[in-house]
Amino acid sequence: MREIVDRLRQERNLPRAQMRDLLLCEDAAALEYLYAQARAVREEAYGKDVYIRALVEFTNYCKNDCLYCGIRRSNHRAQRYRLSQEDILACAQKGYALGFRTVVLQGGEDPHFTDARLCAIVRGIRALLPDVAITLSVGERTEESYRALFAAGANRYLLRHETANAAHYAQLHPAELSLEHRMGCLKALKAIGFQTGCGFMVGSPGQTMETLLDDLAFTAALNPEMVGLGPFIPHADTPFAAQPPGTVEQTLKLLSIVRLMLPRVLLPATTALATLDPMGCEKGMLAGANVVMPNLTPPGAREKYQLYDGKSVSGSEDADALEELRARMRAIGYQIVTDRGDYRPAP
Length: 347
Prior knowledge:
Oligomer: single chain
Strand content: 5-15%
Number of strands: 9
Structural class: alpha/beta
Number of helices: 14
Organism: Candidatus Alectryocaccomicrobium excrementavium
Protein name: [FeFe] hydrogenase H-cluster radical SAM maturase HydE
Radius of gyration: 19 Å
Cofactor: [2Fe-2S] cluster; [4Fe-4S] cluster
InterPro entries: Aldolase_TIM, BATS_dom, Elp3/MiaA/NifB-like_rSAM, FeFe-hyd_HydE_rSAM, HydE/PylB-like, rSAM, rSAM_sf
Binding site for [4Fe-4S] cluster: 62, 66, 69
Distance between the termini: 30 Å
Helix content: 40-55%
């Protein structure tokens, strides 16, 4: 198994059969070796730095009806909200004062936020905080919309593909959504010039070893600047309420594999990972992650943005909590830095 890990580090990919063997590996010593190699590759590119992103969940309205998502349009128990432009700018300012140099605007696919409204928000942040990176995570839009947002000053766009297997995609999404369209959006984002992120859930209903292998092959081919992956966690008000969650162990394994495939990728330790394991953030870092996204959404709204049950919402929303996060990272040998944390292409 060490030979397989070494080959992955050297060649940045594996034959499908060997990648399957690695995904199936449960040997503790082999997995520790995998994590160690991922850490080494991460530190070659980014040192001991951990980049923090100010996450602002600005709307939980969504026109889509994805079967796994707690803010799906059919969930009439969800308490809906939208932040105003003033609220969003205030969150960005607060984050900047705390040392955040990236703001992430995340929300459902909310028709209220037209190109005009969303571009105005992006321009407002850019005018107020000219040196920050602006990341958007607002789903599928037209290529014209993406171009307008890029021109307004957005730098990065995260659009998780969720699964690269068409049959599996159909199990997770309503009929009006297609994998082909999702992939087309990702390709358009890269072509426009966004630092682009894809990603997938670990342990989603219907996921098999073959669909995971498809995910890894797609991710390698796309060569994104960011990858967001975390465990599936069910929500009580969705058709998947009774499904088991993904596992921390498989998530960590996949984080390490993605790091070895894409040595310079920006790779978060996600909130979902921290929700399943109080030490999930630390474990993610030690498996090759280098980004964490504390939640700066105002408390009254934060509890309503429930994509899954049990979401960790404590975040690092104030100076004391951020200092606690700094201490936690120092305890495992890493350091939070005041930096945009841009993707660093190979020299």
